[in-house]
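Quick start: read one record
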Amino acid sequence: MEKHFDQELDALKNEILKMGALVEDAIFESVEALKQLSEDKAREVIAHDKIVDHLENSIDEMCVDLLALYQPMAVDLRFITMALEITTDLERMADLGVDVAQRVLELAGKPLLKPLVDIPNLTLIAKEMTKEALDSFVNKDANLARQVILLDNEADRLRNLVQKELLEDYMMKDPSTTPRALPLLLVARHLERICDHATNIAEDVIYMVEAKVVKHHPELLEKDNQQ
């Protein structure tokens, strides 16, 4: 019985990693579509979201079956219940990738307002946070989860830079730029929200491994880093 449980738990981990890889692809490809102003790429991101939705449902079923059949205890129980929450975060992250792709469709046929600098950098952080949050979950690595949470400040900083530049240097000085500036402003917001969801996963990992609630308690992270 224990062998079968371990095998099914490994299968669950693999499905979560597969879902995470699809989310990473959605983040990357949506911004690639933006760089190229490619409607085709944007529509591919939107179409592939159905695969993520299907995986979410499949993983949820796996979790329910594991809980019903094996009645796990302690860390395994927390792992499975956290998996149910994490797939919700991943699905929302994929939806935000779709939101970026939809902004690309709004900009199609118009030249980009400015060269993209901070948005691609924010994309790299979003991908890194997503990957490391999932790695921390699968490997039950609370220290890696802490590093993910600390990256969120840089994501906020880049989003703020994008918003400040678009608002102050373009929209306020020349309102006619608004139709091209607003989608870019929203893209930065979508990417930053992806980072927030990665942070949620990392916070769940710390709770799963250490039974410590760090959500809304950044002082606990600071204490950990000082030790």
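The chain is about 85% helix and 0% strand.
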